[in-house]
Design brief:
Thrombin, subunit H; nine-stranded antiparallel beta sheet; seven-stranded antiparallel beta sheet; ARM-like
Length: about 525
Amino acid sequence: MSTSLPVGKHHSIPAVCRIRGRGTATLISPGLLLTSKHAVGSPETCASLTAVFFEGTKKKPVEVRLLPEKYYFAATYPEHMDYCLVACEQFGILNVVPVKLPLTKAGWVTVVEGEVIMVVQHPTGSDEPDNNDVEDEEPVERVKEAPGETKRFVEVLRRRDDLLYLKTRMNERTAGCPAFNDRGQLIGLQSQVCHELSGLVNHVVSISSIVRHLFANKQLWRIEHQSTFEELWGTWYIQNDISRIVSITENFKDDSIFRAAALELCEHTRKLELLGKFVEDNGIRTVLLSIDRFQDDETMLCACIRALWSVSFLEGQARTLLIEGKAADRLLLAMEKFPDNEQIAELVTLFLNNTSSGECRLSFDSDSSYRALKLVHTAQRRFKRAIVLQKFGYSFFNALMDANPSNAKILVDVGAVSHITFLVQEMMNNLYLMEIVMRFLRSVAVSQEAVDMCINKYILVRGGKGSLHLVAGMVIELMIKYKDVDSILLDGNHVLWGFGNDMSCRAAILQHPRAFEAMRLSLPVVLAKSAAS
C-alpha cells in the first residue's frame, strides 16, 4: 500500500528536504534519501553535500551530512533513469516519517495525460541555460538558489512509457523533486535539466520504473517496507522464472519474506525441466544461504535438503557448485541437529549417495568419512523399517569403499556389518536391497584389515546377531534364493572366499549344509566373468 500525504500549498511534507545548492531529496527510509544524480553528482561530490530539513516551517531547520561512503547507488542506464539513493545522518531527523516508496504494484499509480500533479521543488536559477549542467559534478557558483521550498501544481502534457513530460520553465533548474498526485501518493521523481541533444527538458520518472530498476539491481533491501509476502510475490514473480525468485530473496532480506521466497524456490525443484535454470540462476547458492540462515528451522531444512537432492542428480556445474559450496557439511550438520527426523535422514542419505559417484564427486578425508558413515548408519539403526534409508545408505557405503577401501574398516567399526543380519532376516524379499547388501559384504570381505576387525570385535566368530554362522548362513541363503541373479551369485562367491581366508571363518562356512550348493550355483557366473575380463 502507498502512503497518502496531504496535498496543498500550505501543507508541509517533513520528509522532503533541500540539497544545498543542488536541488531536492526525499527521505524514503530511515537514513536514506531518494534524489536525482543531477542533484548530488558522484560519490566524491556527494560526500561534501548536506540536506536541510524543516525549512519554511515553525521548526528550527536541521542540516545533515550525506554519507555516500555508507551507501550510494545511482542509475547509470538508461539515461532518462535519473535517480540516486544515498545515505544521510539521522541525528535530528529521527522523528521524520519517511515518504513510503511503493514496492508493490498495488501502490503504483497510473498517471494520464492532462492530469495535474504536485511537484515539491527547491529550484536553482540561472541567467542563461548551461548545456554542461548535466555533466557538472560540483556546485555551479553562478547558480542562484531560491529561498526555500516551492510547491507547483502542473499538468502532465505527455506520457511516454516511464516518463511524464511537463511544461518547461526557462532559467530554472530542478533535480530530485518528488511528485505527488491529488491523493498525495508519490508518483515519480521530477527534474528539469539541460540535455546536449534535446535541450532543457522537464520530466518526471515514474516511481514504478524506479522501483523496478532498483529490483533489477538488487537494491530494494535497503528500503523499509510493510508489504506482505503475497503482495511482493504477486508483483515480482514470473511463472517458472528461477532468476526472479532468487532476485526476490536478494531484494527482500527480512526473515519472513526471505524464508517464504526460499520455500517457493525449493518447491520449483520438483519440476525437472527447471533444474538446469535452477543451477544457472544461483539457485544452489540461495538454498545453501537458506540452510545457514535457518539452520534451526526443521521445516525449512527439509525443503532445502530436498531441493539439493533434486539437483544432485545433475553432473557438471551443479556438482561443482555443491562441492565448492560444502553442501555435504551443511547436510550432515542438519542430521546431527535433528537425529529424530526421518525425512532429513533419508534426504541427506540420498544426496550423499548421488554425489559420491561420477566424474565429479564428493571427496571425504578420514574424519569426514567417519562422520558421514557414522551418521548414516546411526540413522539406519534408528529407522530400521525405512527401506529407502537402508537401500541408499548401503549404496553410499559401497561408493565410499570403492573410492577408498580403507572405509571398510570404518563401517565395521560403526556396526554396519552386524546390522545386515537384521536386514536379511526382515527384508530378504527386497531384491534391490539384497543386491546392495551383498555388494557391501563383498567390499568388506576383500579388505583383510576389515575382516580382521570383524574377527577381533567378535562380530563374526562368536555368538550374537552378527555371528559368523548367521552372516555365512544369510549369504548362502541369498545365493540359493536368488540363484538366477548373477550379481548376488558373483558377490556372494567373493564374500565366502574373502571371509574364508581366515581359518576359523572357513570352518564355520563349511559347516553350513548348503555351502557347496551355493558355491556350485555361483561357479558358472564366476567363470563367465573371468572369461569376459
